[in-house]
Amino acid sequence: MPRLFTALEIPRNVAMSLSLLRGGIPGARWIDVENYHITLRFIGDVDNRTADEIVDRLDRIDRQEFQISINGIGSFGSKKPHSVWAGVTPTSEMAALQGEIERICQRIGLPADPRKFMPHVTLGRLKSCRLDDVVHYLGGRGNFHAMPFTASRFVLLSSKESVGGGPYVTEEIFPLSEVWNSGHAGGEVYETSRY
């Protein structure tokens, strides 16, 4: 069974901006542009019945689209970095969507995600890279920012068991409602997909 996770997609123009951050760390394995995403909830390996139940519950989520901003870069693993990422500015809408997905996963019996949600786009995986090279890389690119974009849907992705970084397959698409009268609570909304 493939590994499942929910994510927000990165539009092509933003992905191309992120791709300019590739290179500069000897030994890094850079993520392919088409595999950039913002993970909302890692689900893991589940049986077909559980996967169907997850899709059914995710399909009932009714939330509005929201803006996403990607700013700055960083790394995971302070003394021995294992990945570099571009930061995603947290928003209440993104946190609410992620929280609802987390509650759905727990209700159907999946263990709680032990990690605190920190939205980011993984750019590269580091295995035997020198700390000095990573520090130098981050120091020269810390002021990165991309054009903000609208998340009009979230997706359920699958990956084959590998060392991470794709290729990913879009299993299901879940549209978010378009905001028409922005600034007016309860304005007219309808579902749309713009990717």
Automatic annotation (TrEMBL):
The active site is at 37 (proton donor), 120 (proton acceptor). A motif (HXTX 1) lies at residues 37-40. Coiled coil: none annotated. A motif (HXTX 2) lies at residues 120-123. Its EC number is 3.1.4.58. Keywords: Hydrolase, Ligase. It comes from the Bacteria. Residues 8-85, 92-166 form the Phosphoesterase HXTX domain. It catalyses: a 3'-end 2',3'-cyclophospho-ribonucleotide-RNA + H2O = a 3'-end 2'-phospho-ribonucleotide-RNA + H(+). InterPro entries: Cyclic_Pdiesterase (IPR009097), Phosphoesterase_HXTX (IPR014051), RNA_CPDase (IPR004175). The keyword Hydrolase applies. The keyword Ligase applies. One of its GO terms (molecular function) is ligase activity. It is an enzyme of class 3 (hydrolase). Hydrolyzes RNA 2',3'-cyclic phosphodiester to an RNA 2'-phosphomonoester. Belongs to the 2H phosphoesterase superfamily. ThpR family. This is RNA 2',3'-cyclic phosphodiesterase. It comes from Neorhizobium huautlense.
